[in-house]
Amino acid sequence: MSKTWQDSEIKYLNRYAKTKTFDELVQRFDVAADQVTAKLLDLGLTTKDGKPEQVAADPLLAVYEDALERLYKEDWKKASALLEKIISESDQPELAERARQLLGVAERRLAAGPKEEDPFLLAVWNHNRGDHQAALALCEEKDRLKKDERFLYLAAAVKAASGDEAAGSLLEQAVEMNPKNRVYAFHDSDFDDLRATGDYAHLFELE
Question: How far is the C-alpha of 54 from the C-alpha of 135, rounded, in Å?
């Protein structure tokens, strides 16, 4: 099961990663080494002993990090190519699904031309970095939860990752607006705890 990183843990990594060895961080969080590697790559951090190397347990994590950087540089074409590579080659459903969501953003920007920063992309970025408060704030702005199922789904994921009981209701609304969200949720580790509860089990049933 993929680890849900708490805000306090993210702050710890940002503050102390450079002063700790990789093994010390693994022991500190009591998780598999590849999960610490993935989070360090996601945050752009290295440890006292220079880890993680870019040849991580899943090399596509480095590709994902590169794709995120390209998105923020508005290099939509290169970002799209990197995200397509992840989707076609990754055997991890969560990574592939997040790449698929970001690919949709990149493709829309390519088609529409230059625009102001996409709030959905920024919300996804904040969620992936563990800044749940910032991601949720973007989802809730300008009545987006009533207008756009993407923000509904993302808000549900943010709340589920934070252990908020409101996640189930939001996910239910997102599935009603777009049934594909049922498939996304089935593979999304953010919903692992919610999936295990009886009240919302029906949201994860695939036909």
Answer: 27
